[in-house]
Design goal:
Keywords: Transit peptide. With about 350 residues, this protein is α+β, with helices and mostly antiparallel strands. It contains 8 helices and 19 strands. It folds into 2 domains: about 5-210, Gyrase A, domain 2 (2-Layer Sandwich), CATH 3.30.1360.120; about 260-335, Elongation Factor Tu (Ef-tu), domain 3 (Beta Barrel), CATH 2.40.30.
């Protein structure tokens, strides 16, 4: 999803691109503030008179009420209310930009385009036009200040500096969107300001610890928004009008029939788990009790993950990965409370 120029610049910096992920030869320390090229994300731009209202009618959040200085999480759902894509959305002048997993980007661009009909909107692939960086760590604000860049104070606030935009997505993690032609210079500037280059897994770990899930090809149509805690982290509006899957999402909210939630866990294994792997618990026997959503290596060994699981299984006892006798999940805190 990146331009050849951008990929060519990263390679001499010790970067390795493989299967949509990036890694660097030199690994930063666990407590470093890191700089991650977000090549695992793709971008869609909506432009035209109906750029926002067109998407508003398709997505789970209220895009019509999104001001220019804010960003939001949202989802695109199937008619059955299952999430096809999780989205980070921000306004760019009169346009709207959507960031989503690169492995579903092309399919979602095509699917969303099918709904345009008579709307005065145009959807385009913005992945080559813009480059995304993730900055994460305790000193992320100081890094931006040292680089001469503004830093939003609140989560889901965005600030602009010319064509560059900075979005705070969690307490210590920010996304920077910049025209691709300016990306190499910005990479050098941020690194000079103290951020250490790091791979995709480091950003995934930051989002796991923030409790912000990313739908990928492995988990499409597996979850209703509330199973991923999306109503807690601001990804669903229950006051807006209809959108695909809205009836199911609203019914889940108001009838209290949610039996699964997303949890954070550590898995002590040397074999890298993958998204979509089934989870097992005693109260469900040999039947799957849930699935992994996102996984990343943990600094202390093993892996950290976001996992959607039957609440009864989480509350009642041991949960295992991949099989009833697989590795045990040790549950960790999320930065927000579950109902």
């Amino acid at each position: 999803m990146t331009t050849p120029h951008w990929t060519e610049f990263l390679a001499p910096q010790g970067a390795r691109l493989d299967d949509g992920q990036i890694d660097f030869a030199d690994q930063p320390s666990p407590d470093a503030t890191v700089l991650v090229p977000l090549v695992h994300l793709g971008l869609i731009r909506s432009s035209g008179e109906d750029a926002a209202s067109f998407l508003h009618n398709l997505l789970s959040n209220d895009l019509n009420k999104l001001p220019g200085e804010r960003a939001q999480l949202s989802s695109f759902n199937s008619p059955k209310g299952r999430m096809l894509a999780s989205l980070l959305i921000w306004r760019d002048g009169g346009d709207v930009v959507l960031a989503l997993s690169a492995d579903i980007h092309a399919a979602m661009l095509k699917k969303l385009s099918m709904y345009i009909l008579r709307s005065k909107a145009r959807l385009s692939d913005a992945s080559a036009e813009l480059a995304l960086f993730g900055i994460s760590g305790a000193d992320s604000a100081a890094v931006l200040a040292s680089a001469g860049l503004p830093c939003p104070a609140e989560i889901m606030q965005q600030v602009a500096a010319g064509a560059l935009r900075v979005i705070r997505v969690s307490a210590d993690s920010l996304v920077v969107a910049v025209p691709a032609a300016e990306a190499p210079a910005l990479f050098d500037t941020l690194r000079g300001a103290g951020a250490q280059p790091a791979g995709s897994a480091r950003w995934t770990l930051a989002m796991i610890r923030a409790g912000v899930p990313l739908i990928t090809a492995a988990t499409q149509e597996a979850f209703v928004a509330q199973m991923l805690n999306f109503e807690i982290i601001g990804g669903v509006s229950f006051q807006k009008g209809c959108y695909p899957g809205q009836e199911i999402v609203a019914r889940t909210q108001y009838l209290g029939k949610l039996k699964k939630r997303m949890y954070r866990a550590h898995i002590d294994t040397t074999t890298p788990p993958v998204a979509g792997t089934d989870l097992y618990a005693a109260d469900f026997g040999e039947q799957s009790a849930g699935q992994l959503v996102n996984v990343a290596p943990a600094p202390q060994g093993g892996f950290e993950a976001l996992a959607v699981l039957q609440t009864s299984s989480h509350d009642s006892g041991e949960v295992r990965l991949g099989a009833p006798d697989g590795p045990v999940l040790r549950f960790l805190d999320l930065p927000y409370a579950l109902p």
